[in-house]
Amino acid sequence: MNTPAAGPDTPALTLFCAFALKQAVEQTILPAYIAAGGHPVEAVYEPTFRLLTRIEAGARPDVMAGITGTLADLAASHIVTGLRPLARTGVGVAVPPDAPVPDISTVDAFASAVTSARSVAYSRSGPSGIYFAGLLERLGIAGEVKARATVVDSGPTAAALLDGRADLAIHQLSELILVPEATIVGPLPEDIQEYTDFSTALGAASLAAGGQELRAFLHGPEARTAYAANGLEAFSEKA
């Protein structure tokens, strides 16, 4: 991939990146981009809905990687342009280090694990938490689980496994990985799995050089390997 070399006075690109993509982007993709002579990057890692709040307040990133539906809405408002499917991640389950690993291979087994837990940690406002709250209702176990749940306002829910607040955590797989001490049991059974799709886009008003190259790195071969190592499934370039 040909990346124009950046000079010492090259202005930084602004990247808004969904928190679920953070580990792959921050640890692998951006270092590779910079090493290839890319522009400096000021990256903001937050859940997509919080990135949207920044945009509503007037922020205009050069490149954005976030939930596809949100980016589509921004494209319709001419704030970003050129949506390109990136990757997806499913919802998974984690337990504290050295804890017994519950059976979640079927819907009934998953429901049993959730109702047997002392406390289940899940996100208050992220896509996985919103989905899980609705799933509890559909499974008929909402009252039982929510009565002793640990609802996390921000950050990885698996952190609640390390300080004793919970003994089961529900989150997107790419966010469970952010707490390496926790043990990831696996994804939800496919019958009740929920995937979140991510895409990239360019800032419609951005004139910054290097935005196309940075976005290309987010879709490149090193990036695809990084996504796979961090609980994400990269989409085919034909998607």
Which of globular, elongated, flat, extended, rod-shaped describes the shape?
elongated
Query: What is the ordering of alpha helices and beta strands?
Result: EHEHEHEEHEHHEHEHEEHHE
Q: What is the radius of gyration?
A: 19 Å
| Terminus-to-terminus distance | 21 Å
CATH architecture label name of the largest domain:
3-Layer(aba) Sandwich
CATH topology of the largest domain: D-Maltodextrin-Binding Protein, domain 2
Mean pLDDT reading = 92
Strand content: 15-25%
Low-confidence stretches: none
Describe the structure.
The protein is α/β, with parallel strands linked by helices and 239 residues long. It has 2 domains: 13-88 and 197-234, Periplasmic binding protein-like II (D-Maltodextrin-Binding Protein, domain 2, 3-Layer(aba) Sandwich); 91-192, D-Maltodextrin-Binding Protein, domain 2 (3-Layer(aba) Sandwich). It contains 10 helices and 11 strands. It has helices at residues 22-35, 48-56, 68-76, 107-116, 127-139, 142-146, 159-162, 173-176, 211-218, 221-229, and strands at 13-18, 41-46, 63-67, 80-89, 91-95, 120-123, 150-152, 168-172, 183-187, 196-203, 233-234. The strands form 2 sheets. It has a 6-stranded mixed beta sheet. A 5-stranded mixed beta sheet has the order 7-6-8-5-9. Helix 1 (22-35) crosses helix 9 and helix 1 (22-35) runs antiparallel to helix 10 (221-229). It is elongated, with a radius of gyration of 19 Å. 46% of the residues are buried.
